[in-house]
Design goal:
Shape of chain B: globular
CATH topology of the largest domain in chain B: D-Maltodextrin-Binding Protein, domain 2
Distance between the termini of chain B: 85 Å
Number of domains of chain A: 1
CATH superfamily of the largest domain in chain B: Bordetella uptake gene, domain 1
Number of strands of chain A: 2
Strand order of the largest sheet of chain A: 1-2
Radius of gyration of chain A: 22 Å
Helix content of chain A: over 70%
Largest sheet of chain A: 2 strands, antiparallel
Order of helices and strands of chain A: HHHHHHHHHEEHHHHHHHHHHHHH
Oligomer: heterodimer
Structural class of chain A: mainly alpha
Distance between the termini of chain A: 75 Å
Shape of chain A: globular
């Protein structure tokens, strides 16, 4: 096995202290940035880019790879502890992770999250190492209709989030979709719903909406109740993951990893879509699906595994084809190109050592993430014990910084504030916010894929079901909708029938 | 009372001295004396970003001040340009201004006009080309056109959108009897993946943006939309020699400041950029991105060049609407 020996040579290289330190520093930066509400790993990577100017190509990739891997996980720390997703991909971690915290099981939730994320990440790093070229070929067969179908499945997954009120969730989703259409349309260049506001032409950024709805909304709620944080006042104990317990979650980990590995290769989709779909699928597949949302470990495990499984997968098209599918991989590509290293098929034959060293550093980063995750999560849990007034002040500052940092635009800060108020009101009146944010994230993607598909296939609407992969995914989506709405429809029908008889 | 008045006197003297000093400093302030912000009007990782970062790196030793880069993306680069014109016109904010943004104004996007900016320098320029996958059945541009003539609409070209230079070029061929289908992709990565996966037949792009696919032998060029052949691709025919006149839509990248910026500061910046463009580092960079500019434009000429492009795009769009 040539790949094995190349990987071991790569491991020997990245275990040298200087390279090793870059991974560790990257991980620490990533986990902290990810865990801080408002600051995402993409912000952190963009800020880190100038520091890579003077590094070797391997060091810069180790550093950025560490931030990427650590940051994708880090968001779950704040999601689990204070119900604020540190990055969009950690949104599903709020749904079953935070309920566990409320039950006093935050240590357990964090342990599961770290173990699942690391497993997903390690698997995808191995996939990157041993199967990158064939997977890249497979990924190229996906065209816009398949991307559209996958995004549509993500949108439908919100039904999995809706516990009892599918119709209100739909309403929330459609509001999100409408917000997503604000700004200059991506293909025709026509401004929509901008109401003459010039700044609105660039659109409403989903990260800004998320920070507003979840971070600011939660802060107002925290201050209004001033007891929300009290629940985790008790000491957080990190249980060593019991093998038996983790073994029981093996199917959830595997399902999440598989979904994340495939979604990660799709340009544009990435960790958030992967995690949301994994949650939706897990709800259907898990025997405890009906209890999701009440702190079920399966519901935390699958999206955690999925989002970190997207990291290695996203690097496959980058390294094998030279196609950066996300903001994070685009920054990595910029770092490589600045060094005169061109990602693509030639890289494998010309600089095999570098490629395998990058693989090795991704693998190592995912393993070391377990330690970084535990240490930093422990630090954060101490931090969460400061009085709510101080903690919320801190979160507000970070939120404003984060909203500004997305595009260096003060307009985004105002948008964030508005959504902070909306987020609080939604919480107050039990109007689900998660479908709204998914609408804002996925709506523009779905629209783009839909329009490009039609342009490419003679405006033939049937193309989405004619193509086997997209047809299958859309079939799954329809099954999801029926599954979620049928019980309430049947109930209504029976009630009406009973009424007629009576 | 006495202490107070003496304090007041001292304060007054102090204030007079201070204001005098400040006035003197203002009168002979050396430009640049503090960091100059480079606003890159697109996100990290793209062509404009690479240019901004390279300039930041190479201008620092010339101007002796740091030049931090900030990415302000959105609305075809107009979000970053809005930031530029709303900042003080003192030469301490410069921005990347590229052909795509100018053609977006011509298409009616935003409120910016060429007169809002002074173009400090045209730093990169490249004609667009048509590329096909390495194993495409189309050996020459004529092959592709003949297929399009025989099967109208069957040849699909990946582009960056409607109303763009890409679209204008395809419309031109349409008017010549070759119906090519425009398949627009908003995101560059998706646009590049499409011909590689054989979902589209060709891609319209400038060579620098697909450099990795050219070195990777995944794409090959068929034609360059210019009146001359491209120095880096001497074997690729140009559109003029094939009998087509669609060469007035180059992809230029410039450095711009608001039009109210003092002329002496614009000249200092222009001189510094011209110096950078003579360095071996820059020459290597522009060669790798197939975008070297041989002519050195003075700010007034550069402005005229951009305006000419704006008018040409407007005329094309008007002709298309008919």
């Amino acid at each position: 096995m040539e790949a094995f020996s190349l990987l071991f040579t790569g491991l020997a290289t990245v275990l040298q202290p200087s390279h090793f330190m870059m991974i560790v520093i990257g991980l620490a930066v990533g986990v902290i940035a990810g865990a801080l509400p408002g600051i995402s790993f993409v912000n952190a990577m963009a800020m880190a880019l100038p520091f890579t100017y003077m590094m070797s190509p391997l060091d810069s990739m180790s550093f950025l790879g560490g931030i990427y891997v650590g940051g994708v996980f880090g968001g779950s720390i704040s999601a689990i502890l204070i119900n604020i997703p540190g990055t969009p991909a950690s949104l599903p971690a709020c749904w079953d992770g935070y309920p566990m915290t409320k039950q006093g099981k935050s240590g357990r939730a964090l342990t599961i999250a770290i173990a699942a994320s690391a497993t997903g990440g390690i698997f995808s790093a191995l996939m990157l190492t041993f199967a990158a070229p064939p997977f890249a070929k497979f990924a190229l067969r996906f065209d816009q209709p398949e991307f559209f179908a996958a995004t549509f499945l993500g949108l439908v997954s919100i039904i999995a989030v809706a516990k009892s009120a599918p119709w209100i969730s739909f309403l929330s989703l459609f509001i999100g979709l409408a917000i997503g259409t604000i700004g200059v349309d991506p293909l025709y260049g026509i401004p929509r719903l901008t109401f003459g506001v010039n700044d609105a032409q660039s659109g409403i950024n989903f990260v800004v909406v998320m920070i507003g709805l979840f971070a600011l909304g939660e802060v107002v709620e925290m201050l209004a109740k001033s007891e929300a944080v009290a629940k985790i006042q008790g000491k957080i104990r990190f249980e060593r993951p019991k093998f038996v317990e983790m073994w029981a979650l093996r199917w959830s980990v595997m399902r999440g990893t598989a979904i994340g590995s495939v979604i990660g290769m799709i340009p544009g989709a990435g960790a958030t879509v992967g995690a949301v779909i994994a949650y939706g699928v897990e709800k259907q597949a898990s025997p405890r699906g009906a209890e999701f949302g009440t702190g079920v470990p399966d519901g935390l495990t699958a999206p955690e595994a999925a989002k970190n499984a997207t990291t290695g997968a996203a690097m496959i098209p980058l390294l094998t084809l030279g196609i950066p599918g996300s903001a994070a991989t685009a920054i990595m590509m910029a770092a490589l190109v600045l060094k005169g290293v061109t990602p693509g098929p030639m890289l494998f034959s010309m600089q095999t050592d570098l490629v395998y060293s990058i693989f090795a550093s991704m693998l190592l980063a995912n393993i070391l993430m377990i330690i970084a995750g535990v240490v930093i999560a422990r630090g954060f849990s101490h931090f969460m014990r400061v009085p709510p007034a101080i903690l919320s002040g801190f979160i507000v500052v970070l939120s404003v910084l984060g909203a500004y940092g997305v595009r260096n635009n003060i307009f985004d800060v105002y948008v964030c504030m508005v959504f902070g108020v909306i987020g609080y009101l939604m919480k107050r009146y039990n109007f689900p916010a998660a479908p709204l944010i998914l609408g804002v994230i996925l709506g523009p993607l779905a629209e783009r894929y839909f329009l490009t598909s039609l342009a490419n296939y003679d405006n033939n609407l049937a193309i989405f079901v004619q193509r086997p992969i997209s047809g299958t995914i859309l079939g799954m989506s329809v099954a999801f909708i029926i599954w979620a709405t049928l019980p309430s429809l049947i109930k209504k029908y029976r009630q009406r029938k009973a009424g007629v008889v009576a | 009372m006495k202490t107070l008045s003496s304090f007041a006197k001292k304060a007054l003297i102090g204030a007079v001295i201070a204001s005098g000093l400040a006035g003197a400093v203002q009168a002979q302030e050396k430009y640049p004396s503090r960091p100059i912000e480079i606003v890159v009007s697109f996100g990290p990782g793209g062509g404009a970003d690479a240019m901004g970062r390279k300039l930041s790196q190479l201008l620092e030793p010339v101007l002796k001040v740091p030049l931090p880069v900030s990415n302000i993306s959105g609305a075809s680069g107009n979000a970053g340009l809005t930031k530029l014109v709303t900042n003080p016109a003192d030469g301490y904010t410069v921005a990347t201004l590229i052909a795509l943004s100018v053609s977006s104004w011509a298409a009616g996007l935003g409120t910016a006009k060429p007169d809002d900016f002074t173009i400090v320098a045209i730093t990169q320029n490249s004609p667009s080309m048509l590329f096909v996958p390495m194993d495409s059945p189309f050996k020459t541009f004529k092959d592709l056109l003949n297929h399009a003539k025989a099967n109208p609409g069957a040849v699909k070209v990946a582009t960056s959108g409607y109303g763009t230079q890409d679209d204008i070029t395809l419309m031109y061929f349409n008017s010549q009897g070759y119906k090519l289908t425009n398949v627009p992709f908003a995101k560059p990565a998706e646009r590049y993946a499409s011909p590689l996966g054989k979902h589209t037949d060709a891609i319209y792009e400038e060579p620098g943006d697909v450099a990795q696919f050219l070195t990777g032998k995944q794409l090959r060029p068929l034609v360059v939309f210019d009146d001359e052949r491209h120095a880096s691709f001497p074997d690729v025919p140009n559109s003029k020699e094939l009998g087509f006149s669609i060469s007035d839509l180059p992809n230029f990248r410039t450095v711009a400041v608001p039009s109210k910026t003092p002329k002496d500061r614009v000249d200092i910046l222009a001189a510094a950029i011209n110096k950078v463009m003579e360095t071996p580092e820059w020459k290597k960079f522009c060669a790798e991105t197939y975008s070297c500019v041989t002519k050195r434009y003075a700010p007034a000429e550069a402005g005229a060049y951009v305006k000419e492009f704006y008018v040409a795009t407007q005329n094309h769009l008007k002709a298309m609407k008919k």
